[in-house]
RNA polymerase sigma factor (Sigma-70 family)
Amino acid sequence: MTVADSHRAVEAVWRIESARVIAALARMVNDIGLAEELAQDALVAALEEWPRKGVPDNPGAWLTLAAKHQAIDQFRRRDTYQRKLQEVGRDMELRQESAEAELDEALDDHIGDDLLRLIFTACHPALPAEGRLALTLRLLGGLSTAEIARAFLVPEPTIGQRISRAKRTLADRKIPIELPPPAELPARLASLLEVIYLIFNEGYAATAGDDWIRPSLCQEAMRLGRVLAGLMPAEPEVHGLLALMEIQASRIPARTARDGSPILLLDQDRSRWDRLLVRRGLDALRRAEELGTLGPYGLQAAIAACHARALTPEATDWERMAALYRLLAHVTPSPIVELNRAVAVGMAYGPERGLEIADGLRDERALREYAHLPAVRGDLLAKLGRAEEAAAEFRRAAELTRNVRERDLFLERAAALSA
């Protein structure tokens, strides 16, 4: 294996295993910043050693053990070795154990709890939303600061500052790296799911820039969702979120033309939808339903399933979708949910009914700069034959959006109606 091949192998292993390595170290040192530094030291050691000795049979365990050795050395240098050794227990006496015992320790049953602790800490509500997003992608997605910056179209120093501030906040507030107590679990889980879905949404419908979608962000969010579903198999909303993301992601191959321009849902070639993702999403939705009452993500997944089960737009069960949106609006009242309900009602019962709901949202402060309110109104007005009003709404939508592809789409709709 060449040096270049070894480095590629190290990078691939790091992307897959970094979260587990950092999680195991965070349990040991109770400091996310220090845990990440130790893991990075192990990565440097791998880059130096693997080209000479070859990639080990279990590279994840190798990185974990190398990082733990670094931690032990740090404790020694700080004259706190004996105290720390007692804290982490006999299983951490790595220097005295055989290589086989070390490997077993690296693969022990703590790993599930370790990852859960890391996920909940990275998504702690004490952190601002942008800090939670950046820290989650860094620690759990294995993405570099530069990769996160490119994904969100933000300068790299800005992302670096967000990550640093998030870690500093966790340290300054002495937030323990632990699972939340049972009484706090629902609120903390909601924060965690929100972060994962925000990552997915930024990939599925980019808020700014030249690209309509960024599939890599969707992939990262779905990977995190699958990890979480494996760690918390009895939580219906975890499966609901995973179902929602996988069903929506199934449409990605059909959402853009060859030139990258967007193709709206009702105009998509449904034969290009990823049927494997649809199947996985529907399975996750069934699992959520079996576990209990559907929450906000489960209800959104059930709405997405109405599209996924229909071979053509005409076959969509719009009445069921309108009813599901009404239920979702009851569970989580939101003007955006109401706007989506306006679309479903317009399809199920006619554009007049849909426009009535959309018109009732024009004074909502949260939607004043939201491009999709005038876009929905424009679509409903066009169906009613009110072309001039519809064109004006699409031009308004084009002014509000920060996404170049979306702006072009709205302007094309306006031009076609004006013509």
User: Anything to note?
Assistant: Strands lie at 208-209, 402-403. The chain has 20 helices and two strands.
